[in-house]
Amino acid sequence: xxxxxxxxxxxxxxxxxxxxxxxxxxxxxxxxxxxxxxxxxxxxxxxxxxxxxxxxxxxxxxxxxxxxxxxxxxxxxxxxxxxxxxxxxxxxxxxxxxxxxxxxxxxxxxxxxxxxxxxxxxxxx
Length: 125
What we know:
Order of helices and strands: HHHHHH
Structural class: mainly alpha
Distance between the termini: 46 Å
Shape: elongated
């Protein structure tokens, strides 16, 4: 989600100086009261009116994407905990199961077993 513009932040401060309450500003600009309070607090404490700089952080697993694909290709039913342990041993990459799951999802890698044939018709319903 993109930050609100510097112009919107200036509008909040101008409305505050004009004597409007946080609730009135919220209805006027259709933004949350908590965001308005943060804008006012930032200005009060540091004089800052511009939104914070957003950096595009690189993912931890970018360097390990090829390795992850190979691991899952070799063993499609591998558990996340096994992948995490292998990453630590083979790549000296300390990560969590949650981060590993996010990496696999972002790379479009699934670990589910594939059926080699459709289920038989004699199975109970």
